[in-house]
Amino acid sequence: MSGARKPQCVVVGAGPAGLGAALAAREAGLRDVMLVERDFELGGILPQCIHDGFGSMVFGQVLTGPQYAQRYIDRVEKAGVEVKLNTMVLEMAPDRRMTLVNSREGIYDIEPASIVLAMGCRERTRHQVMIPGYRPAGVICAGAAQRDINIDGLMPGRRVVILGSGDIGLIMARRFTLEGAEVEGVYELMDHPGGLTRNVVQCLHDYDIPLHLSHTVAFIHGRKRVEAVTVAAVDGNLKPIKESERLVPCDALVLSVGLIPENELSKQAGVELDPVTSGPVVDERMETSVEGIFACGNVVSVFDLVDWVTRTAETAGRAAAEYVLEGRKRGAVVRVNPGRNVKFVVPQVVGSLDRGADFYFRVEHPERAVRAMVLAGGGEVYSRKAKMVRPPEMVHAGIDAVAGSGKVLDVTVEVVEEEGGASKKKKRGRR
Amino acid sequence: MKNKHELVCINCPLSCGIELTEEDGEILEISGADCKVGLKYAEEEFRDPRRTVSTTVKVEGGVLPLLPVVSASPIPKSLVTEAVRVLAKVALKAPVADGQVVYRDILGTGVDIVSSRRLEAETTAG
What we know:
The complex is a heterodimer of chains A (431) and B (126). Chain A has 431 residues and is an alpha/beta fold. Chain A has helices spanning 16-27, 65-79, 126-129, 142-152, 167-178, 197-204, 264-268, 306-326, 421-430; strands at 9-12, 33-36, 52-54, 63-64, 82-84, 88-92, 98-102, 106-110, 115-117, 121-123, 139-141, 159-163, 182-188, 211-213, 215-221, 228-233, 246-249, 252-255, 259-261, 293-295, 334-338, 344-346, 349-350, 357-362, 367-376, 379-389, 395-399, 411-417.
C-alpha cells in the first residue's frame, strides 16, 4: 500500500462542521488537509437553509444559511485546503485507511495521518416513526422538501400537513405558506413544541398556522398520491384517541420528526457510539475511541445551532493537527456523568481539563429558574444561572482551564434548582 | 386602561418571554428580556413589527436554478408576503456575487434585497 497518498488530515463532509474543521486544522499548522464532499459544492445543508438566524455567536451577526456557508467557503478556499467534490468515502478502516471514489479518479485508497468525521445527520423517516396507512407519493421529510423548494425550485405539495414541530418543520410551514401552499396545521406528539420558541413565533404565529400539541397522524390515505391524513389527539401514553380522529384532506405530509447522526462510516472504523446521542463517544478534544479519528458537529450529536457545530469543528480540527504534529497525548479517560435533569453530555469522556473544555448537553424536561453546573473531582468548576432550560435547546458550559487537573477523577454535569442560601451551603458542604 | 402584551423575542435562541405593559399606546413597562436587544425588539414589535425576508429568485445559466436572497434589513411584517410575491417574478443571469443587490427598495421600504450566496455560471467543461 506504499503507493497510497498520505494526507496529514482528511475531513469527511463539507458542511459547517467539515469546513470549520478543515480550516482549523490548516490554521493549526497542517500543510496537507483534504476535504472530501460527495455533493457538487461546499456548504452541506446550509445552502438550502435560506432563512436567517445563523451565526449570532460565531460572527456576532444574524446571517442566512447560505451566507454563513459562504464565509467559511471563502476562507477554506483561501487557506489552501485540498477540496475533493463529488467524492464519496466508500470505506474507512480502524487503521484510518480509506477508500474513496469519484468519476475522475475512480476508486482509490488513501492513508491519512488523521481523520475528522463531519458527516452530519439524516432525517428520521415515516418508517422510523411507524405511521400507519398506505404508501403513496407525497410523504416527504421536511429537509427534503426544503431542498426541493429552495434549491431545485419544485413544490412538493399544495395543501400540506406537517407532522412534528422540529425547527425544520416550523421553518417549512412558513416557507410553504410564502410559496403559495396552504399549511393546514402542524401536529406534535409531545405536549411541547420540538423546535425553538422563536421559530414557533415567527413561523407559525406570524402566519396564523395552527400548532396542535399532543396530536399525531394516525393514518395516511391515498393509493398513488396522498389524499388525506387522519389526525388524532393522543393520551398520556402517546396513543391516538379513537374518538378524537379527524380526516384532513391534503396532498402532502411533511415530516419533521427528528434527526439522527450519520455514522455508517464511523461504525466501519470501529468507533464507539453513544446509544443516547447515536454519535461517537468523544473526549474534550473531540477524539473518538479510535486513535487519530476525531468527530464534530451533528455527526456527534444533533445541535440546534450551527454556531455550536462550528465550535466543535474548531476543537476537532485543532486537535487533529496537534495529534499529527505532536503525537497522541490522550491518556486514561473518565466518563462524564449526566446528573440531575441531564439527558446526555458531549463530550462523554474527559482526559484532562488543564486547557478547559466545552460541554454541550440537553435536559430531560423543561425547567425554570435553574443552575447549570459542572463538578470535577468533587469541586464546582462551572456554574451558571439559567431562566429556563428546554429539551430542544442545547445547553453549553464552557469551563476554563482547571489547574492541576491533568488527571481528572470524575466529572458530573447537572442542572439544579436555583434557590437561596440554603442549597448553596449544602453544595459547599459536598466539596 | 392598562394592557399587558406577552411577546417572545425572536432575535436569538434564548427566546426570552417579554411582558410589555401599555396604556393607550404608551409603553409603561417592558420586563423579562435578558438583554437590550429584547427591550428594543419588544418596543418595535409593539409599534412597528418587522421581519427579515428571505426567499429565492430565478437564475438563468447558473449551476443551480435558484438564488437565495435576503432583505438587507428587516421590513414591516405586513409587507413580507407581498415582497416574496414581487421577488417571485425576478429572474437573473448567472454568475451572481454574494451580497449583490437583486432588487432595490422593495415595496418602497427603502430596503434592498441582496443575494445571500455566490452562484457560478454553468460551464460545459467537466
